[in-house]
Amino acid sequence: MSSKLKLCVTTIIILGITYLVFSVSTSIMLDIRSVIIFTILSIVAESLLIPTPGESAISVSFAVNLAAILVLGVPEAAWIACIGVMVRSVKHQGNYVHILNTPWYKTLFNGANILLSAGIAGYFYIFFGGVPEVIDFNNLFLPLMTSIISYVLINETIMSWLMSAATGEAFISSWLSNLFFAARDCIFVAPLGVLMAIAYMKYNILGIFLFLGPLLLARYSYKLYIDMRRIYIDTVKSLSQAIEVKDPYTQGHSMRVGEYAVALGKRLKLSNKKLENLKMAAILHDIGKIGIEESILNKPGKLTEEEFDKIKTHPENGYKIIQDIEFLKDVSEIVLNHHEKMDGTGYPNGKRQDEIRKEAAILSIADVYDALTSDRPYRKALTVEQAFAIIEEGKGKHFDAQLAEEFMDMIKEQGSAEH
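The chain above was modelled as a monomer; its predicted structure follows.
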């Protein structure tokens, strides 16, 4: 564990313990029965995490945490959220992960994070006029929204600090990239939390069971969405691998191009949607080569004019293959235009300058750079300096000059970081 990561984890754990000691010492009366009920609900909700691609996951437990704030206030709601996170048992990569087989510092960090997030959210709710056990719809909006916003901001700030310390990614970049999704998820389940609080105050434990169904339905809807995305990502990767089987020299090319393109897109502060499209386009940009003979793809010598004309059909072929797939419509346009050039000498349509989408222009540079620095049937890989010289020569003619400069600066910075 790096010193930055140790500092982050240690700081959050100390802050969490400090808040816990303070809250316990100042707590006056406890509704033990309600605390136990909401704690069990929090553990169950946290144990129903939905894994997403990567290391993250979606949880509907915020509905329970919000209901606890509305019914019990702080610090009880913060304790409940903390116990739910620390005691949960979730399935990850085929194994169940729980407090007994998780590193102690990870368990404490997660507990401290949610303790601080829920605790501060509860204080904001009360500060702006919210009263535990009293839901007045005429005055609910402001305390409720400030509570949700503070919860999201605190939680995302802590997690972004952790990710920045762990991966070296810029803090603000990590914070901005995850903020929208965190806010969306919390706002999506917040109405369930309000309804759950109302049901509990009116019908007691029976009211909770009435809203377990909608809560589980929300979780099921999330899971269907994540499963659908996982299936389409796997499909895209399979299509990419079909090309690499035909052309072994390009093995790993599409994934590397995707990494370069997305890194440049992040540097240019493209939206998450555009970054996702860019990654999919990179994986699929050569899919049109599936209809080209292997003898041409793997030819060690110079291509004839007729053979090169066949190669030049692959962007349009790729476009035709994926254009009718609903979730790849935007991606298909990027695939179609990734060999267009600024001076209009590219293919298939001879587009120039602003006629070429920025994502396609980014993909073009990433594609050329990886092709130049990789072994091909007709030559050995060039050095980074040789590739830069070719990109420099093509600035304003083949490549967007500003994007080319940004790309080369990015590669230089990555090289310096590696050294």
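The chain has two domains: 3-229, 247-418.
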